[in-house]
Amino acid sequence: MRSSYSQRVASRVWSFTVQVKNPHLDTMEEDILYHFSLGTKTHNLPEMFGDIKFVCVGGSANRMRAFAQFIHQELQLPGNSEEIRDICEGTDRYCMYKVGPVLSISHGMGVPSISIMLHELIKLLHHAHCRDVVLFRIGTSGGVGLAPGTVVISSKAVDHSFHPQFEQVVLGKVITRSTELDEGLANELLQYSTELQDLPTVIGNTMCTHDFYEGQGRLDGALCSFSPEEKLEYLRKAHEAGVRNIEMESTVFAAMCRVCGLKGIVLCNALHSVWCRDVFVALQHRRLTVGQIFTCGTTFIH
Ligand SMILES: O=P(O)(O)O[C@H]1O[C@H](CO)[C@@H](O)[C@H]1O
Ligand SMILES: O=c1cc[nH]c(=O)[nH]1
């Protein structure tokens, strides 16, 4: 994120609040945000967080600390960026740094981990009376038919069947929620990316899986129940359905932002291509056998 972006966003005339969708919250004397080690009685949340406009989340604690230090320098805030304090130091589940109007939080790996964090984050923003907050998931992913290093801005998050939906089991029943993301913001970010040099960026669908290995078609896990050909066939279908990258949190992120009236963006770097562009082209022209495609088409550097 560049400071010019935050200035442009700050000048917008949005006015939306965070909408928690839980009638029981109002009746509670105290709300303990257990995994943040924060609470409505123990902390003055409006004073601590009332000015937050951007929340950036990513899996790893070290990355989110480094990101917060980067933003500290970008925004030319007073003090030493090396000395920023982890607001959640009372727990080692997540880390949280506040730098000006930006909150940087780690969420761990996978849907259950980010989902717990999002419940407590959304309640925190609500208790702090925050307005016009934009949530960014800044993550890593495997690219599908992209050059390694390409940034993918998600138009929507899709499940393993390429549907824009997230299924949550509640009291033994499946509830399905939409995972469409804010198209206007995605286009706006794509526009900003053209102002940066050497940052290939595309908009595409992001597939969210519940597993890093078999779930993403990897052949190098402890278990593998499919052939290289079946893997390529699945990735080809994913590509045809508009999938450009694969990660593990976007569906619940998109679903929870939508339900709670928050603008959400998923922005991931494709670390490697699980199905690189050259191989895609070759497959299209049927110049290589599937076996050769598999051998030269897959590089796992994660
Ligand atoms: O790089 P982050 O954002 O942590 O996320 C990606 O990396 C993890 C897998 O290595 C998954 O959680 C996936 O979504
Ligand atoms: O291939 C990858 C890389 C990062 N994260 C994922 O979930 N998959």
UniProtKB/TrEMBL annotation:
<dbReference type="InterPro" id="IPR010059">
    <property type="entry name" value="Uridine_phosphorylase_euk"/>
</dbReference>
<dbReference type="GO" id="GO:0004850">
    <property type="term" value="F:uridine phosphorylase activity"/>
</dbReference>
<comment type="function">
    <text>Catalyzes the reversible phosphorylytic cleavage of uridine to uracil and ribose-1-phosphate which can then be utilized as carbon and energy sources or in the rescue of pyrimidine bases for nucleotide synthesis. Shows broad substrate specificity and can also accept deoxyuridine and other analogous compounds.</text>
</comment>
<dbReference type="GO" id="GO:0005829">
    <property type="term" value="C:cytosol"/>
</dbReference>
<feature type="disulfide bond" description="Redox-active">
    <location>
        <begin position="88"/>
        <end position="95"/>
    </location>
</feature>
<dbReference type="Pfam" id="PF01048">
    <property type="entry name" value="PNP_UDP_1"/>
</dbReference>
<keyword id="KW-1015">Disulfide bond</keyword>
<dbReference type="InterPro" id="IPR000845">
    <property type="entry name" value="Nucleoside_phosphorylase_d"/>
</dbReference>
<protein>
    <recommendedName>
        <fullName>Uridine phosphorylase</fullName>
        <ecNumber>2.4.2.3</ecNumber>
    </recommendedName>
</protein>
<keyword id="KW-0808">Transferase</keyword>
<feature type="domain" description="Nucleoside phosphorylase">
    <location>
        <begin position="53"/>
        <end position="268"/>
    </location>
</feature>
<dbReference type="GO" id="GO:0044206">
    <property type="term" value="P:UMP salvage"/>
</dbReference>
<feature type="binding site">
    <location>
        <position position="216"/>
    </location>
    <ligand>
        <name>substrate</name>
    </ligand>
</feature>
<feature type="binding site">
    <location>
        <position position="218"/>
    </location>
    <ligand>
        <name>substrate</name>
    </ligand>
</feature>
<dbReference type="GO" id="GO:0009166">
    <property type="term" value="P:nucleotide catabolic process"/>
</dbReference>
<dbReference type="InterPro" id="IPR035994">
    <property type="entry name" value="Nucleoside_phosphorylase_sf"/>
</dbReference>
<comment type="pathway">
    <text>Pyrimidine metabolism; UMP biosynthesis via salvage pathway; uracil from uridine (phosphorylase route): step 1/1.</text>
</comment>
<comment type="similarity">
    <text>Belongs to the PNP/UDP phosphorylase family.</text>
</comment>
<keyword id="KW-0328">Glycosyltransferase</keyword>
<feature type="binding site">
    <location>
        <begin position="137"/>
        <end position="140"/>
    </location>
    <ligand>
        <name>phosphate</name>
    </ligand>
</feature>
<feature type="binding site">
    <location>
        <position position="93"/>
    </location>
    <ligand>
        <name>phosphate</name>
    </ligand>
</feature>
<dbReference type="InterPro" id="IPR018016">
    <property type="entry name" value="Nucleoside_phosphorylase_CS"/>
</dbReference>
<dbReference type="GO" id="GO:0006218">
    <property type="term" value="P:uridine catabolic process"/>
</dbReference>
